[in-house]
Amino acid sequence: MSDVIAKSTITCPECGYQSTDEMPTNACQWFYDCEGCGAVLKPKPGDCCVYCSYGDVKCPPIQAGKACCG
Fold first, then answer.
1. How far is CA 51 from CA 15, 24, 39, 48, in A?
2. What is the pLDDT of residues 1-27, one digit of tens each?
3. Region for 10 from its dihedrals, namely left if φ exceeds 0, alpha if ψ lies in -120 to 50, beta otherwise
4. Which of 31, 52, 53, 57 has a Cα-to-Cα distance from 64 of 20 to 30 A?
């Protein structure tokens, strides 16, 4: 089993601002406030969290091959 990556860089679809953050390992993050423009990001349809939608690394449960918290 491969190691789970705990950090992901989110890119805001509104302004392009990027932020690298530690992802929660036991919960999904459904909302994310962009530090660049203040937009509130929500998961795209079919994604379980903002990291799966806008991050460069999927959330830890998805990386581990498990269903996410949805």
1. 17, 10, 15, 8
2. 468 899 999 999 999 999 999 998 877
3. beta
4. 31
